[in-house]
Amino acid sequence: MMEKAGRQANYELLRIIAMWMVITLHYLNHTGMLPAAGEDMVLSRAAALLIESFCIIAVNLYVMISGYFLSLSDFSLTRLLRLLCQVWFYSLLLLLVMGGLGADIGWQEEGIYSLLPFLFPIRAEHYWFATSYVILYLLTPILNTAVRHMGRRSFQVTLAGLLLFFSVSKSVVPLQFVTDSFGYDFGWFICVYLTGAYFRRCRAGWEKDTALSPWLVYIACSLLTFGTALWAFYFSGTAGGAAYLTALPFHYNFILCLAAAAALFCAFGRIRIQEGRASRLICRLSSLTFGVYLFHEHILLRSRWIGYIEACIGRAADLPVPLFLLHWLFSVLLIYAAGSLVDALRLYIFRLAGSYTAGTPAAVHLKRLEEELKS
Question: Pick from 65, 109, 113, 153: CA 20 to 30 A from residue 218's CA?
């Protein structure tokens, strides 16, 4: 008998932190603060590289949390439809808003084809994460059945084989494999999902205090990522494939990225947050995190929001390290707050719509279908 999965404030706090990391990664990319091969490594760029090294685990954390909880859950058409509707809400709403403000949507160059990413955001990969996540969720009935019925040893061998193929091999061979998508695909999501499911199944062994602190492992892996990136940056000046070598430590399927994510996940697994006002606030904020992603990564906004911020408070690249750090924190806080407010509005609209459609034939049929799927 599988136990029921429910929200836990420690992991919901980790989900919030992961979204801060996601915004940070996009901030560093759009401000041009990350050093490229052939550029001078000034102090502010080194600081940006260090921040990137500690935040690159964000996507792995999200999928790992999903594996930890969804591996105990039944497949839900309602959950899938809510996810799809949430993606469409942002895809179409921001199209109308940004189009109304005069943003170029490519209509003159591509005609009706320019609307494909907005009308079919999953199929057209408007949001790459959402596309891979939806495919992953469609596979969860198969994955969860395997997780529940495989022996522990079989599970370990299968997971080790997948990690060897997707992560270990590319991490030790400094050449790009044709099958390597850098972790931007549902194949890698399956590996990380199963890693989270494995942690859930074997949690009695790692949730207890041990001599090796997961916090130290996370810090060590992040610093090793930073050191590897620095080494690749300087080494790439005399070697071919400079762009690949300097980007390799920041691929989601790089072994240090996975290890750091697993360590931080375990570290938060040992945190206990008492039931109360703080835990309820954390859970409410965490329910908005996916909306924060859909808001700031919309096609018409992802390359513009940093320009709006820099027009008000200056360019990050022109600032010394202390002011750059303040610029980063303010920008991430602003985008996170704006995205949370928009998603709180979206959630209100969805709940209001749900109250009006609860008794409709479509809703009744969906509920009946849900029950059939569980039987």
Answer: 153
pLDDT tens string 112-134? 888 899 999 999 999 999 999 99
Burial of 207-246, coded b for 16+ CB within 10 Å and e otherwise, reads eeeeeeebeebbeebbebbbebbbebbeebeeeeebebbb
- At residue 4 the predicted structure's pLDDT band, cuts being 50, 70 and 90, is very low
Give the tens place of pLDDT for each residue, 210-223: 656 899 999 999 99
Rounded Cα–Cα distance for residues 146 and 195 (Å): 13
Separation in Å, CA 246 to CA 31, 168, 216, 254, 295: 18, 18, 25, 12, 29
Helix (H/G/I), strand (E/B), else coil: 275: coil
Task: For 59-69, write each residue's pLDDT tens digit.
Answer: 999 999 999 99
Gap between the Cα atoms of 52 and 59, Å rounded = 13
- Provide the pLDDT for residue 1: 31
Q: How far apart are CA 131 and CA 129, in angstroms?
A: 5
**Among candidate residues 93, 117, 94, 121, the one with its CA nearest the CA of residue 107:** 117
How much of the chain exceeds pLDDT 90, in percent?
A: 65
Question: CA torsion sign, 81 to 131 to 254 to 250?
Answer: negative
* 105 DSSP assignment: -
What does the angle CA 194 – CA 181 – CA 199 come to, to the nearest 5 degrees?
A: 15
For residue 100, which phi and psi values (nearest 5 degrees)?
-65, -30
Number of neighbours of residue 179 by Cβ within 10 angstroms: 11
**Residue 363: Cβ-neighbour burial (10 angstroms; 0-12, 13-18, 19+):** middle
**Separation of alpha carbons 352 and 167, rounded Å:** 44
- Residue with token string 């904020």: 285
CA 298 – CA 117 distance, rounded (Å):
10
Higher per-residue confidence, 222 vs 208: 222
Asked if pLDDT for residue 108 goes beyond 70, the answer is: no
Per-residue pLDDT, 242: 66
What burial letters (b/e) apply to 134-158, b meaning 16+ CB within 10 Å? bebbeebeebbeebeeeeeeebeee
Q: What are the structure tokens assigned to 173, written together?
A: 């061979």
Report the distance separating Cα 224 and Cα 297, nearest Å.
Answer: 29
Give pTM, 2 decimals.
Answer: 0.92
